[in-house]
Design a protein that fits this description.
Elements lengths: L4 H9 L27 E2 L1 E6 L5 E5 L3 E5 L3 E4 L4 E2 L3 E8 L4 E6 L2 E3 L5 E10 L1 E5 L8 H5 L4 H9 L12 E3 L33 E4 L5 E4 L22 E3 L15 H4 L7 E6 L10 E6 L7 E4 L1
Amino acid sequence: MKASPLFLIFVCLLGFIVTNCNLNEDKGTFILMDLAGPSNQYKITGNLSGLSGSLVLELNNSESISLNQNGTFEFSTRILSGQSYLVSISTQPSNQLCRVSNGSGIVSSNDIKEIDVTCSQNKKIFITNSSYNGDLMTAGGAGTGVEGADSRCNVDANKPVDGATYKALLVDESNRIACTSNNCETLGLAEHKDWILNPNTTYIRSADSSIIFTTNENGIFVFGNLSSSFGNAGSELTWTGLSSGIRWATSTRHCNLWTDSTSGDEGRVGSTDQVDFRSLRFGTGEDCNTLRKLICVEQ
């Protein structure tokens, strides 16, 4: 294309129209380049599953999107190649806990599609209204003490009217085991036997919905302190059977697999008003003829 030098200079000054000019005054030619050029801004997308309410996600502490159904989500903000992104949860749904996987990184010449947000229902815990001696097998009319305790949970006056099944937070070395090593650190979930807590799940008090704890990938919580105590009605003792030494391991004091109601045997207990390990392992043990309550956990 032929053009005068003044015209070429005028065109090249229009920076909002062109991004590059190749001037040749002798020949009077020029080349116009596309202002936008090749795109280097990329989408941040992901997948949401398990949601039963509403959730607010945030990108780089800036853009927020509100979601109320499962499936693919996408932020309107585009991120330049080489820049970082961080997807976080700014508002959790009620009665659920959601987690973000693969939610941060550096954009590199492609849309981000691997972000997963998964939500799980909070589980409820209550303390029984009734108290029992150490012979929980007889109390529940069951084949084992653990089964008897589970049975009593499901007919107790404090059980929520929700149609759910509840089991007792109770161990006995044989029928129900949480861990065989400290905090299940050796084999993880493989150490469980008929265990009643799910991995990566939040548990709340049924009476007031206060969060008690959130389990880790091994289906237990590492002490520290609980977010709230198991009970909200003062100090009460509950049968648990847990050891004082190895966290979450079973004590040898469990009223003979929760079948003994005599004073010659003992069972380990927890205290409902404590927020440290004493919530599940309080004192030195109780005679099996004493009356204690149960911690019941939604399944």
